[in-house]
């Protein structure tokens, strides 16, 4: 809370400004400096820094946050702290871009029945066993239009691609993959 309006009211009422400042523990110099309306040296420096911060932020096409903007200003010879840069960026409404969070695509069911390992983790190619052991996987690829689901079935012995269904949902791929495995 600022006490300067109270001191101004006391002055208007004809009371002593010196006594009001002593009671409120405010220097008279600060009261009169604020009364003139001229910004202090810190406010002037903040305005200059805000202009420079905005210029650096625009040069980075809006990607730089406070740590990088601070590093650029320091490289240019500006004396300022990282927290001051962060405060001025918040005040100016500037923020850097963040990488998107990684989406968790597979959430295992804790109550699901464990399937038997029919291959017994033996993925070595056996030339006599062509088309007897297949393995496959489903992967999710993030595109500009959304998620693309890609299923792949490979013959373990020949390492040939047996199937490659893809789509915007996982249901058709799982059925195609199951049909190819039989």
Notes on the structure:
This protein has helices spanning 4-12, 17-24, 28-36, 41-59, 66-75, 82-92, 171-181; strands at 134-143, 146-155, 161-163, 166-167. The protein is α+β, with helices and mostly antiparallel strands and 182 residues long. The protein is elongated and about 105 Å long.
Q: What's the quick description here?
A:
By secondary structure, the protein is α+β, with helices and mostly antiparallel strands. Helix content is 42%, strand content 14%.
Write a concise keyword list for the protein shown above.
alpha+beta; 4-stranded antiparallel sheet; 7 helices; elongated
* Overall pLDDT score: 81
- Gap between N and C termini, in Å? 78 Å
SSE string, helices as H and strands as E:
HHHHHHEEEEH
Radius of gyration: 34 Å
How do the helices and strands line up, and which of them pair or pack?
Elements lengths: L3 H9 L4 H8 L3 H9 L4 H19 L6 H10 L6 H11 L41 E10 L2 E10 L5 E3 L2 E2 L3 H11 L1
Antiparallel strand pairs: 1-2, 2-3, 2-4
Helix pairs in contact: 4-5, 4-6, 5-6
């Amino acid at each position: 809370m600022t006490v300067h309006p109270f001191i101004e009211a006391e002055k208007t009422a004809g009371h002593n400004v010196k006594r009001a400042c002593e009671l409120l523990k405010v220097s008279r110099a600060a009261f009169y400096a604020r009364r003139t309306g001229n910004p202090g040296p810190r406010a002037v420096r903040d305005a200059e820094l805000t202009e420079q911060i905005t210029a650096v932020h625009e040069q980075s096409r809006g990607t730089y946050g406070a740590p990088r903007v601070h590093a650029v200003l320091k490289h240019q010879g500006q004396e300022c702290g990282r927290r001051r840069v962060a405060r001025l960026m918040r005040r100016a409404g500037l923020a850097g871009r963040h990488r998107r969070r990684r989406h968790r695509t597979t959430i295992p069911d804790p109550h699901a029945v464990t399937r038997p390992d029919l291959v017994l983790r033996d993925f070595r190619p056996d030339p006599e066993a062509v088309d007897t052991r297949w393995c496959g996987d489903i992967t999710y690829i993030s595109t500009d239009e959304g998620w693309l689901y890609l299923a792949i079935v490979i013959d373990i012995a020949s390492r040939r691609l047996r199937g490659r269904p893809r789509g915007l949902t996982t249901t058709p791929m799982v059925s195609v993959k199951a049909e190819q495995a039989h």
